[in-house]
Amino acid sequence: MSLNSAMVYRRTDRGLREVYEKSHQFTQSERLVLILLDGRLSVSGLRARLPSLDNERIERTIVKLEEAGLVEPSGSAEDLQSPSRAEEVMRLEPDVVVQFLEQNDLDPVTASVGRSEDAAADLVRASVDRAAARLVEEADADSRRYEQRSTHADTNGSDRSHHVSSPSPFTDHEWDPTEASSFAITTVNVPDRLDLQEERDRAETEEYAEQRRRSVQRAWMKRLLVVAAVVVFGALVYGVLKPVRDQASAMRVGERLTGTFKVPVTVAETEFRFLPSPRLLIRGVDVGGEFGAEQVALLINWKDLWFALNGGQWVWGEASVAPMSMSPAQAIAALKRVPGGTEGLPQTVSTIRFESIQVPGSRLFAGRYAAAMRRGDDGRFGPLVLREITSDDSSMELQFRPSRTDPGAIDFSLEAQRWVVPVGPRTRWNDVRANGSIRGHVLEVSNYILTGFFGITTGTVFVAGDVEWVVTGTAEAGKVDVETVLASLGGSTQGSLQGPPAAMTGTAAMSLVMLGRGATPAEAIESSAVAGPFTVRFAVLNGINLGLAATQGVAASGSTRFTEFGGTVVASASGVRFEDTVGRAGAMVARSNFTVAPDASIAGVVRVELGRQRVQAPISLRISGTADQPRFGR
């Protein structure tokens, strides 16, 4: 709001009562403005008389007094020469003005003040005192002038004495509309304590607003700088990575892998990521419909990435294949393709790692496996190393590498410790070693060695497929400790002296052949069985004397020592069957057929003959219990 500078305000009756009663809570500056608005001083004159108050404060005070009904507009400065205004001018007494302007304890003041504010208040009070004294002097001077004029009129005897009026400031001297009345406080230009506090609050508010504006400006400048830096960095990265992105597109990667594996390879999509580490993700890889991978990640370290971004060659440290599941046919196809296909990969790829491989439904590969290939010092990839992931102390490692003598063939070697061979009886062997090759539809194990507590078994295996897959092979075992075999079936360890003696002791030898058929190599191997003759030297059957049992009954205890013991054994995944087993001890002959199940339970019949010189008829005893603790009964 802006007031007219020529506008003149005057006190109303309520304003006059306020001077006498002092009923409103006004500051000294507001009371000073009320005194000066006597109907003769314009707004511009008020500003000139109060230079310590800014225009905004003066206008706000006038508006406040007008809204309170204490002042009202009375016209312009040209209308103030009217003598009718004299009574309004002389309406206030000097003592009343002094009392109204005096600051007391009930008037509004600032709560916290300092020395500078106290000094300002003292100056105000001193100025008020001087103004009051001046008003008293002016009043005395006006009274003397009035008396002198009256005396002069009486002395001259003039008739004009009947028309003498009270002295008026409008007739005695030229009046300036910018002057205040004779009781105006013209020397008080120092603001009171509340005015100083308001000025300080306004300055603090303006300073806070300025600081806030600068803070917001700095924050936005920082944001704009960050955005600009990101945009510039993104542009640089886009420019650097654009050639890489073109080379790493799904189509280009598929073409490269097609040339590597010599079969059509398709890739669904590729993506380059920087976090948690730089990598190129290749998703939906299908190798000629034979096998595939859901995701392959080509990793690169930050040092090589910085080197590549500066114009160097991209050096991929490792290709990591995500966990995958495949069928037995897909597993065989991968074993044929991967070791030979890696020769066509870029030299910058140093390692190929398969995090986890599973072949559900396969007995040959029933567990979970991890595989890896590493590039050697000669720049060529080494063998594909397949390791079984187990929770016990067993270990198994298979290595596959391209054959050096037969192009297209894959040679393999097997090393295992404390491992259960997935073919034949479920027996844990201390050490297993095998070598062979895969070529076309032929899987050949040229030799294998199984070493256990009870002896060593060697042989060969040959798997070929035409109309169906056929497994053939041999197994030779000599010096097999029968006692140790039975102890292992019962859960005991070699050399254990606790418990009863073994059901049978001796040293066995056997020469077995392997045969199996199936629609797939896995089925043929899983269904294969080994069969052949066996002999046991120094065989002793503990727990029963068969000769006495034939004459005295089955309760005859003791042992039977055989001079000869042998027969035919057939071993498969369903157990071990002993057929046409014959044991001789002098004139006694024991003939039996019995089966040992995978859980070591035994079932069968033994027929005991005492010889022709005896009149005793042959007897048959039923065999039950377990292989390490058999029981005989009728």
Question: How does this structure look, described?
Answer:
The protein has 634 residues and is α+β, with helices and mostly antiparallel strands. The chain is built from 15 helices and 25 strands. It has helices spanning 13-21, 28-36, 43-49, 55-67, 86-89, 94-101, 115-156, 169-172, 193-247, 250-261, 302-309, 328-341, 482-489, 521-526, 546-552; strands spanning 7-11, 71-76, 265-273, 279-287, 291-299, 318-321, 324-325, 351-358, 368-374, 384-389, 395-402, 410-420, 428-439, 442-452, 455-465, 469-481, 504-518, 529-542, 559-561, 564-572, 575-585, 588-596, 602-609, 619-625, 630-633. The strands form 2 sheets. It has a 23-stranded mixed β-sheet that branches. A two-stranded antiparallel sheet has the order 1-2. A hairpin with a 5-residue loop joins strand 22 and strand 23. The longest helix has 55 residues, at 193-247. The protein is elongated and about 190 Å long. The termini are far apart.
